[in-house]
């Protein structure tokens, strides 16, 4: 058995042909590079640990802004003057927007709405990552979502998503539903070269106390059906699914969803509400593809947004 067969038998990486033609001296130098790689990973691990600590610190700093946003959305606080000076849409010319706002005002006379109705429902529907997860039977519940925040723990390393619902939502007794992700920034000693930054260690969702006949995660026959609220039923520990690739893949995807909510949905919620988040992502995509938006055509207009 040659070295290639030995590697294949051990389910290791596919051995490149050029490596089989190296001398002992060259391989020794490659091993030195591998040692440097290990040292680099340790430094990266320390970096991510520091980032996590900073996130915990600045989450507390920005908490007051999140509280003010929640107060505006719920109608507990009415912004005035300088507080409302930002443009409604950054990607549309001011004079063009003013013209269509007059039309919008004529079509939508003030009915005394409190706050911003259905804010979080429309935020999630404005996200390409979540719009397909939301079923028709989920929407009436999401209309009662009044705030979405997260907290960060340093020891153990973790973050918790907190979904706050109106007490009289008519579907469950919970006023808060949480999803906690314990993570690690450490390099796995068994598989150090697989390290790519923080990874989940355990995932824990809240048990939802559904009111009789209101559980949208079950159909009339009591069978599990698609619902965005199934997200809270996904829990597990990495150590328990080492031999179950399917379960681990499901939890990996759940972790990605959790990070998207933490890193995108919560801090940029208003941009998902106005539809600008997708526009901004498209601009970045065009840039990365080497396309010049000015050559491809004009920016999207209000007419196109209304279609």
UniProtKB/TrEMBL annotation:
Superkingdom classification of source: Eukaryota
GO biological process: nucleosome assembly
One Pfam family in the UniProt entry: NAP
Protein name: Nucleosome assembly protein
GO cellular component terms given for this protein: nucleus
Family: Belongs to the nucleosome assembly protein (NAP) family.
Region: Disordered, residue numbers: 281-307
């Amino acid at each position: 058995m040659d070295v290639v067969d030995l590697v294949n038998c051990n389910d290791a990486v596919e051995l490149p042909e050029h490596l089989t033609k190296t001398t002992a001296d060259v391989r020794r130098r490659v091993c030195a590079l591998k040692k440097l790689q290990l040292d680099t990973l340790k430094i990266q691990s320390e970096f991510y640990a520091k980032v996590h600590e900073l996130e915990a610190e600045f989450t507390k700093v920005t908490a007051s802004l999140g509280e003010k946003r929640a107060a505006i959305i719920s109608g507990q606080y009415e912004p005035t003057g300088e507080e409302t000076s930002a443009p409604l849409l950054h990607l549309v010319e001011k004079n063009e927007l003013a013209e269509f706002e007059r039309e919008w005002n004529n079509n939508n006379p003030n009915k005394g709405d409190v706050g911003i109705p259905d804010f979080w429902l429309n935020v999630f529907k404005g996200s390409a990552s979540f719009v397909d997860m939301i079923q028709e039977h989920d929407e009436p519940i999401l209309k009662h979502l009044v705030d979405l925040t997260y907290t960060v723990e340093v020891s153990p390393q973790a973050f918790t998503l907190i979904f706050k619902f109106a007490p009289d939502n008519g579907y469950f007794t919970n006023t808060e539903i949480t999803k906690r992700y314990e993570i690690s920034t450490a390099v796995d000693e068994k598989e150090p070269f697989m390290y790519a930054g923080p990874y989940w260690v355990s995932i824990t969702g809240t048990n939802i106390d559904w009111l009789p006949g209101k559980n949208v995660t079950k159909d009339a026959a009591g069978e599990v059906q698609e619902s965005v609220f199934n997200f809270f039923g996904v829990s597990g520990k990495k150590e328990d699914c080492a031999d179950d690739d399917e379960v681990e893949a499901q939890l990996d995807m759940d972790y990605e969803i959790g990070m998207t909510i933490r890193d995108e949905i919560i801090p940029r919620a208003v941009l998902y509400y106005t539809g600008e988040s997708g526009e901004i992502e498209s601009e970045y995509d065009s840039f990365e593809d080497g396309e010049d938006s000015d050559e491809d055509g004009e920016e999207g207009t209000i007419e196109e947004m209304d279609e």
